[in-house]
Description:
This protein is mainly β.
Amino acid sequence: MAPLFLTAALHEKIWGGTGLKDDYGFEIPSDHTGEAWVISGHPNGPTTVQNGLYAGKTLAQLWTQQPQLFANGDPKRSFPLLVKILDAKQDLSVQVHPDDAYAAQHAGELGKTESWYVLAAKPGAKIYYGHQASSQAEFDRALDQGDWEHLLQTVPVKAGDFFYVPAGTLHALGAGVIVLETQQSSDVTYRVYDFDRIDAQGHQRDLHLADAKAVTQVPFKPVKTNPQVEEGLGFVKTTLQVAPYFNVFLWQIDGQAHFQAQAPYTLVTVIEGSGKLIVDEQSYSLTKGMSMVLPSPIKEWTLAGQLTLVASTPGPKAL
């Protein structure tokens, strides 16, 4: 069984730039490209298999038509995870995502818990993460009055930082930040503040304040991450997050390292360097920006070279 190498779906955004091309080699559609959906079964941007028996099929098609590749016992569900690389040339809108219950009722989708691994950050870069309101009344008043100076909470960031962003967290990437985002497969966003930007048609983008008031966690309680590091000959493996919907790992390879599957399938993106993946004595070249799924029939594999990868597996709520 071969790994499933994937072609990303690219999305233009008002806040995007050229980092996806400059840093990761994607063929972007314009100089304001904000997102590469590198592993996706979502209808708004499904990725396509490049190689092997399933070349030309989308990940969504394989999930339903070949459920054995994922040990998927319920093909009627949608593929539960989504991995993106985001290039924030400008600040993203300050936004919040709903949980499963609210999203199902109001949007017919999954909720959206996500996480960010910071790939690059310009000096002085920051993210918006949480808020300072102590009560629902204070939060609602700040939204109604546009009191962003007193409401929004910012955190300085650098490459290598990791943030867990559960549904209900007010958040945004700041200008000059590139991240790898691991999330539930959902495209439901409630925009709270867009810095009074005007789009190409001369209009401000819609805000969703009523929904934001209904789903935002008040008061904000950040989830602390506790990375666990395992070092061995040729590798450093860091568990960045173990969570209900997904688990996220950083693999740093310098030489050769052997892995065994810990879940029904594994999602992998190369974020730095080059090397090779060896499965069943077959070797596959790896370069920065490549993404793949290691499906259920692949029980073990070897990584060799000098490269860094972010991997993820489904959590219990995604199985």
